[in-house]
Amino acid sequence: MSTNYNMILAGFGGQGILFAGKVIAYAGLMEDKEISWLPSYGPEMRGGTANCSVCISDKAIGSPLVTAPNALIAMNLPSFDKFIDTVVPGGTVVVDSFLIDKKVDREDVKAFYVPATKLAEENGLKGLANIILVGKLFKELGFCSEESLYKAIEKCVPARKANMLELNKKAIKIGMEQ
Amino acid sequence: MGERFLMKGNEALAEAAIQAGCRHFFGYPITPQTELAAYMSKRMPKVGGTYLQAESELAAANMVLGCSSAGCRAMTSSSSPGISLKTEAISYMAGSDVPALIINVQRGGPGLGGIQPSQADYWQATKATGHGDFQILVFAPATVQEMVNLVGKAFDLGDKYRMPAMILADGMLGQMMEPVEIPDGSDLKLPEKPWATNGHQNKREHNIINSLYLTPQALEKLVKERFERYEIIKKNEQMAEEYLTEDADIIVVAYGASARVSHSAVDLARAQGIRAGLIRPITLWPFPTDALQKAAQTAKKFLCVEMSMGQMIDDVKLSINCSKPVAFYGRTGGMIPTPEEVLDEIIKLGGEK
Asked: Which of A52, A63, A154 is the mutation pick for testing B, counting most B CBs within 10 A?
């Protein structure tokens, strides 16, 4: 199993793309890996695509800007179109199929379709489609231990939103069931 | 070791400054530096400090001049176009022998340029951060942790040599999060500043902070004294990281964000059996001439990699008196080179397997 993960998470601003990336980064930190998290901060964040690069590695990370990801989470069509061809052969792609009505037309990547936004609404987890997708990616890649992932959520959910903790963990579990 | 947590470079710079005893921040928002000012606006009131958003970059930099003159640890931060506006005050600080910390989270230029990461302000930082005969200390961190460590160092050396210091970062380092440990500054003892204009209550002669000298003989003498101090700094304060340089045929020279990329490229080259190495200047002024001169005795070629059209390359050539060929590879305008691009350049230079 590869221990170097170069991930891109991409979607609309407001979908919690940056937060989801931070959860994955913290999960790597919990396991004493080298990690980096780099957000897009350009004008595209206003209405178009928001994305972030996350690297988890055993070695010091060179460029934190991921240009050839081995894992992609896509939460809207513009992001899907922008990044799908950059995924390296053998890479893993997780798509919110409720928002993206398109299949991956590549044979050389592993694609998974999760109607995360719909699942979130059905389970009283509005706004946590991002974390459902993280749960799915975790199930497929095992980029950390399950314990580290929950610890990461505890690190990322601010104290004043403690009620969100269990909801986030529930979202991970739903993602893992997909 | 304390607990490591994730922090954005911009926020880590701010917290490190607070832990280094800085209690006075004067700023003006600009992408990609804004998180630094935003963090200060939250934290400074809690530690009894001053956060002041000035009406302009010029005002903010001149407030730093005033505050530092009173002997306080003061700082300002901005990104490239904003730094241009601050250069007048930085020249006055240098001319008044006043320390201060200036942070430049560089973006593409010239003009308003763009907002993506860049290293195109190297010349401005190291050669002409304002008018007149002067230098400032310039530090170029490559990780969020190093940003933290260099903030304290910049304040300390600025105080020691009574001169402004700059952290030359870029949008990538400012925006990215990495694990970081912030030193606890609660036991910090700041140096005495007997020159400060902080009220003498008739117990001592009054101090004057000034950069106006209408007698050319007096001004020349003062500037020459300052340059004697610069010579001491050049001798004692050079910092550079050397990576696999001992047996290297081709040595890449890069700082900050492009050094991270170059480090990966050197690893790729080594994996192919090419003897490549990296010198990463950590101080850009004083430039780490010693490390380059040493490397030039064994290396065959140098490759300077920058996120600009080629600025530091001048200092690389000067450092080694052009004794070895120095090639250049750069991206600019907010583009970040990839390790593969740098590897291609190493191969083009005929890296021997």
From this structure: A63
pLDDT tens column, B22-74: 999 999 999 999 999 999 999 999 999 999 999 999 999 999 999 999 999 99
pLDDT band at B75 (very low <50, low <70, confident <90, very high): very high
Distance from C-alpha of B91 to C-alpha of B70, rounded to nearest angstrom: 18
Q: B267 contacts in A (CB within 8 Å)?
A: 59, 62
* Parts of chain B belonging to CATH 3.40.50.970: 5-199+224-235
A29, A31, A37, A38: best to mutate for the B interface, most B CBs within 10 A: A38
- The pair of structure tokens assigned to B24 is 């006075």
Which positions of chain A have pLDDT values less than 50?
1-2
* Chain B residue with minimum CA distance to A26: B6
Sign for the pseudo-dihedral over CA of B65, B70, B71, B72: negative
Does domain B241-348 sit in CATH 3.40.50.300?
A: no
DSSP-assigned states of every residue in B130-160: SSSS---EEE---SHHHHHHHHHHHHHHHHH
Q: Tell me, what's the ipTM?
A: 0.93
Query: Does B29 touch chain A if contact means CB atoms closer than 8 Å?
Result: no
Query: Would you call B260 and A63 a contact, using CB atoms and an 8 Å cutoff?
Result: yes
How far, in Å, CA of B39 to CA of B18, rounded?
11
Check if B38 contacts A (Cβ < 8 Å): no
Supply the CATH classification number for the domain A5-177.
Answer: 3.40.920.10
Residue A93, classed as helix, strand or coil, is: strand
Q: Where are the domains of chain A?
A: 5-177
pLDDT of residue B81: 98
Instruction: Say if domain B5-199+224-235 classifies as CATH 3.40.50.970.
Output: yes
pLDDT tens-digit series, residues B225-249? 999 999 999 999 999 999 999 999 9
